[in-house]
Amino acid sequence: MSENSPPPSAGPPVFDDAFRTRLADLFAWRRDVRRFRTDPVDEAVLRTCLDLAALAPSVGNSQPWRFVRVSDAGRREAVAASFERCNAAARATYPDERGALYARLKLAGLREAPVHLAVFCDSATEAGHGLGRATMPEMLRYSVAACIHAFWLAARAHGLGVGWVSIVEPAAVTDALDVPEAWDLIAYLCVGHPVEEHADPELVRHGWQERCPEAVRLHER
After folding, report:
1. What is the gyration radius of the CA atoms in the chain, in angstroms?
2. Which Pfam families match (predicted)?
3. Mapping DSSP to helix (H, G, I), strand (E, B) and coil, where does residue 170 land?
4. Could you tell me the pTM of the whole model?
5. 126-182 residue pLDDT tens
């Protein structure tokens, strides 16, 4: 039995209405956090969240996710510099009031977050023997995204905030972290204790984009 396998039992757990309500709360209160306290994250809690993330589904059971903890100040600075370049370029694409609003948004917690995690997809992995990828090779990347979401929920359940920084240059981050050539950047995560807790998403709160009234539209064919 692998270390990520659930312990043997007489049968599957029973999830009651109370649990389902709490689970809905977890999904509803997951936030993309940009405002972090600088105090450290408990290592045991971080490890638990990573272990739970590893229970995520993956195509062919390939488990292609590769987590890199970025602690070196120089490497962190290289990532922050990439963000600053990309953020300035993105801001210039928005005209007038939308551009002014963009400039006021806080879009990363790179300077404050105590933990930085770069998450890669190992596109050269032999695990899974290629099952499920012949027609949709992008399933490897989707598997990593599922793992990231599992980590995000686990972190939230343990009182941690996670921010996904997408305004970076993947090549620059990959070069700065000196990872294998076959590893493709999927996410750069900031992790730490949030400064504030609020039910509405950051971008709703600051007037960028409201939640869609019908979050999932089921199309019939």
Report:
1. 19
2. Nitroreductase
3. helix
4. 0.91
5. 999 999 999 999 999 999 999 999 999 999 999 999 999 999 999 999 999 999 999
How many other CB atoms sit within 10 Å of the CB of residue 102?
16
CA atoms of 217 and 185, how far apart (whole Å)? 30
At 87-109, the pLDDT tens digits run 999 999 999 999 999 999 999 99
Bridge partners (DSSP) of residue 117 are 69, 189
Within-domain flag for 214: no
Q: What is the CATH number of the domain that holds 104?
A: 3.40.109.10
* Residue 198 located in a structural domain: yes
Structure tokens at 205: 């709160």
Contacts of 209 (CB under 8 A, 6+ apart): 203
C-alpha 135: how far from chain center: 26
> Residue 171: which of 99, 100, 86 has the closest Cα?
86
Residue 28 lies in a domain: no
> Domain containing 135: what range?
39-117+129-160+187-208
Whether 56 is in a domain gets the answer: yes
Long-range contacts of 199-204 (CB under 8 A, 24+ apart): 199/28, 199/29, 201/31, 201/32, 202/31, 202/32, 202/33, 202/34, 202/105, 202/106, 203/105
**How many other C-beta atoms lie within 10 A of the C-beta of residue 78?**
18
Number of domains in the chain: 1
The amino acid occupying position 28 is A
